[in-house]
Amino acid sequence: MPAPTTASASGTVPDADQSWSIREIADEFGVTHRTVRHYEDMGLISPERRGTTRVYRRRDRTRLALILRGKRLGFPLEQIRTIIDLYDRPRGKASQLEYVLAQIDERRADLEQRRRDLEDALAELGEFERRCRADLDHLA
Predict the structure, then answer these.
(1) Going by C-beta distance under 8 Å and a sequence separation of 6 or more, which residues neighbour residue 7?
(2) Which parts of the chain are coiled coil (predicted)?
(3) Is the pTM of this model over 0.70?
């Protein structure tokens, strides 16, 4: 998963000192507050606390974008955690990149198999539909 763009909807990149509430970050990414809290409970994001208020920084936005991208691509949260942890480490370790590439290859193979399965199911459905229509024509 390549690093997400952290620009806002207006196209501006937020300041490092900028912060967001749980409502603002949930609304921006189109998720529920509960989802954001779930990712926090799992340790995937870790906002600052000011009393009972969560304060999300640019790092949290970036991590949330990575989480949601990983989910869209079908990665389980534990794999997303590993990938995010690699993202946070200094760059330059071949083993980190090799791990991510292996995960991508595995996910791609899974998606390609699913596509083949769907194509087979659609072909079977089409054949069944053709037979039903032929039977209906004979009854008419």
Answers:
(1) 13
(2) 94-131
(3) no
3-state secondary structure of 122: helix
CATH of domain 1-88: 1.10.1660.10
Cα gap 55→81, rounded to integer Å: 21
What does the domain layout of the chain look like in residue ranges?
1-88, 92-140
Question: What per-residue confidence (pLDDT) applies to 100?
Answer: 83
Q: Which residue has the tokens 């089409």?
A: 126
56: nearest Cα among 10, 64, 78, 68 = 64
Q: Which amino acid is at 19?
A: S
**What does the pLDDT read at residue 25?**
96
What pLDDT score does 60 carry? 93
Structure tokens at 100: 């991510």
Amino acid identity, residue 110? Answer: D
